[in-house]
Amino acid sequence: LWVGILIARKAGNAVDAAQWTNQLEQRYPDSREAIAAQLKDLDTQHATIVEQEEKLTETAQKLQTEVEAFRTKKETIKATYTAAEASAHVSEAVSGISASMGDAGAALQRAQDKVAEMQARSGALDELLASGALTDLTSSRDDIQAQLDQASATSNVDAQLAALKAQLGSSDAASLPPGGDQ
Question: At what angle do helices 32-95 and 157-170 cross, to 10 degrees?
Answer without folding.
Answer: 160
